[in-house]
Specification:
By secondary structure, the chain is α/β, with parallel strands linked by helices. The chain has 10 helices and 19 strands. The chain is about 25% helix and about 35% strand. Bound molecules: flavin-adenine dinucleotide.
Length: about 325
């Protein structure tokens, strides 16, 4: 049986493995958990979806909801949504899909259902080629040989790994925005008339209440995303300075005297691809000339979870058709 290495365990990698026929697949993941940018941070009694917030109900991907329901990974929630808080846009009911026990349920349950062996806390730093076979290097460790290697990380990271084997001179750089996210628990209700919305202030692009998603803490918990331009300007801001700044903005915006009883922040180096490979180059993945090494991820299709799923699905279909049937 062909031996396959998949680098990363984000949604695109999981989708690829799910859509491939049963093969000898091994995952390599630099983090201690699967999911990549879908992450639920748990601190004491609190839980914050501080990566992807939700999957759109109308994502349009056939079979995805059915599969996620089958493995008990998701629930549909109705929340009050404001598309532009600064401009006082109308507050509307909006249905969204979220992970059953935090968004991380989605990758965790898919990964568990797949049953493929996984090396966690294993950052692949190099790919070696010997006698027409490929090996993965992580520090002093060497894994392989593999017939095929699939890299599912953000464009720049996979380019660094694959540059030796793929000619990128004709390839556009796929740029990602960085995003600061802040997680806060307030000791009392802020009196916010919606649960999620865009454009609270010129620096805060999005905020989402966590209580209606997780339902098990008394304090009012929020995840707040800073705007990409602001993050760029304040990329190296100290965490505590950022957290206090945002807490004050929240209190001012909602005229509240609530106190923050918990605060934490995280800078995502890669959040959203500004333009997809499909838009720029009409391609859906990048492959080596021998068609043994592949690079893919949400950035091939767009900036969201459904794009990550689609990217893995599309590559699995083409690979099954073109490489496995030969
Ligand atoms: C703050 C934020 C908010 C978001 N909000 C939403 C939202 O509300 N709705 C939505 O649909 N989308 C949202 N997104 C986007 C969504 O999270 C992504 O589109 C999707 O999760 C990308 O999946 P992926 O598998 O392509 O990449 P990733 O999730 O980035 O997966 C790549 C994986 O590769 C691993 N990896 C990287 N390098 C190596 C290496 N050298 N060796 C081993 N492993 C490696 C990483 O650890 C990671 O697990 C958000 C993203 C962020 C950051």
């Amino acid at each position: 049986m062909k031996k396959i290495a998949v680098i990363g365990t984000g949604l695109s990698a999981l989708s690829l493995a799910y859509h491939l026929p049963t093969l000898d697949i091994t995952f390599f993941e630099k983090s201690w958990r699967p999911g990549g940018r879908i992450s639920t941070r748990k601190h004491n009694q609190y839980a914050f979806d501080h990566g992807a917030h939700y999957l759109k109900l109308d994502h349009g991907i056939i079979g995805l909801n059915e599969y996620l329901n089958k493995i008990d990974a998701i629930k549909v929630l109705k929340g009050q949504f404001c598309s532009n808080i600064l401009q006082k846009s109308f507050i509307e009911d909006k249905e969204i899909i979220v992970g059953k026990e935090g968004n991380e349920s989605i990758p965790l349950k898919i990964h568990k259902a797949l049953h493929y062996p996984t090396y966690f806390s294993t950052q692949i730093t190099n790919i070696e080629s010997l006698n027409n076979e490929y090996y993965l290097i992580a520090g002093n460790e060497k894994f392989g040989p593999f017939d095929y290697i699939f890299c599912s990380m953000p464009f720049e990271q996979s380019k660094t790994l694959l540059e030796e084997y793929i000619d990128y001179s004709d390839m556009p750089d796929i740029e990602f925005d960085a995003i600061w996210t802040i997680m806060v628990a307030f000791d009392k209700r802020l009196g916010v008339p919606f649960q999620f919305g865009y454009h609270l202030t010129p620096e805060i692009s999005f905020l989402m209440n966590q209580n209606f998603k997780h339902e098990f803490f008394n304090e009012e918990c929020w995840v707040i995303n800073m705007r990409a331009e602001w993050t760029k300007e304040y990329y190296n801001i100290e965490n505590y300075v950022l957290e206090d700044y945002v807490i004050n903005k929240m209190k001012q915006s909602f005229q509240s005297n609530a106190d923050a009883v918990f605060k934490k922040s995280h800078r995502w180096r890669y959040s959203y691809a500004k333009k997809s490979l499909r838009d720029i180059k009409s391609k859906r993945y990048i492959e080596s000339i021998d068609r043994r090494l592949y690079s893919f991820g949400d950035w091939c299709e767009g900036p969201s979870m459904q794009d990550a799923w689609l990217s893995g699905k599309k590559l699995a279909q083409d690979f099954t058709e073109n490489s496995l049937k030969q």
